[in-house]
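Hi C.,

You asked whether I'd gotten around to modeling the 431-residue construct. I have! Everything is below, sequence then structure, no commentary in between.
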Amino acid sequence: MELFMTPDFSSAVYRRSRRAYVLQCMFEYLIALLVADAFLAKLLSALEIDDATVGIISSFITLAFTVQILSVLLCRRRMNSKRVSTILNCVGHLLFIFLYLTPFLPFRGTGIKLIVMVIILASYAMRYLVATIVFRWANSFVDPNERADFSAKKEIISLLCGMAFTASVGYIFGRFEDAGKMETGFLVIAILVLVLNVANFICFLCIGKEEVPEDREVCGMREVLRETLGNKNFRSVIYMTVLWEMGRYFTVGFVGIYKTKDLAISLFVIQIVNICGDAARAILSRPFGKLSDKTSFAHGIEIALGIAAAAFLCLMFTSPSTWFLIIPYTVLYAVCLAGIGANSFNISYSYVRSDCIAEAMAIKNCIGGLCGFGASLLSSRVLAYIQGNGNRFLGIEIRGQQVLAACSLVFIVAAFLVTHFVIGKQKALKQ
């Protein structure tokens, strides 16, 4: 109890826990790379799933955010955060192994679509059910005055490892694809997911157990609602989150298939371009963190949203004849995530009491996730309409993803305005 009340952030347990948390995030990130963007697009194309459905499935991560509302109930129970988080997180990642085994099934069509959807939804649901609990538990070993800087360091390590990892896997998969052995390539990815998840599990075991005093107060439901939906300042954060999630998921779920099919870029080249983006993100992650610690999390998000707007502007003009614009889009979008990633989590501390923080993040992510998935459903209809018209919209020859990017730009600009003129003027809590 003494340790909880007056934590010694320089102790061996705290240092070991921080190192383990950094590595856990890295292994989780590497798994995430294997089930996103071009890798996922290749898998879904091999399963003969149409472009519009590919985009919806790629956006399932936003729908899975809705289960975070259930974490509000988990947070209210006295439980072993370490045990619950470890089990659900690791089992969720194990499901991705079965995702890459689906090409070996003897059927296609509606049946394979349903299996893929169930696997992805179940995996993300299990992970995001405990996401805020993991964040609260693992960050309890981090000095509150250094959260943004620590998050930046953590992200840099993940990004640097991700660069080498995706380039290697992309090259190996490309060799199998060129040899006509794509299914073997999927099997290799399934094995990699298994190995990474074992490492992820070991890291969870190395993080210290959360110290919870017997008299720890739990926010009542009325308090939770008052601190979140009844809190004018936090509602502004929710509005910004909704606009951001709708903006990016209106388009990003369809970019992977756009790269591989319309732009006809090889998986290896795509990974090289992604490495450029990750390198830029790694270089700027720590400066973003230091800037947010010096100014505010809102200021960091504001800058990141401006960069995101520039990214989608580039994507608007990316077509088969101007395919090279996918490079600045990828780099700018990666850089914007350096500013939005950690700040979107940490900004909750600015307007909500720390004892209600897990519930606040769950509510914010749930609402943002629902709106983001709704945006992807709408954009899939827009994409299907444009492709059905022979890639013409309002009489203009244009690719569907270019129109989606224009819509995303509108949402991103709106999120920027809310952040600058509303959130940026609010007074943050000191805790």
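If it helps when you're writing up: Residues 8-210+218-425 form a domain with the Growth Hormone; Chain: A; fold (CATH 1.20.1250.20).

Thanks,
B.
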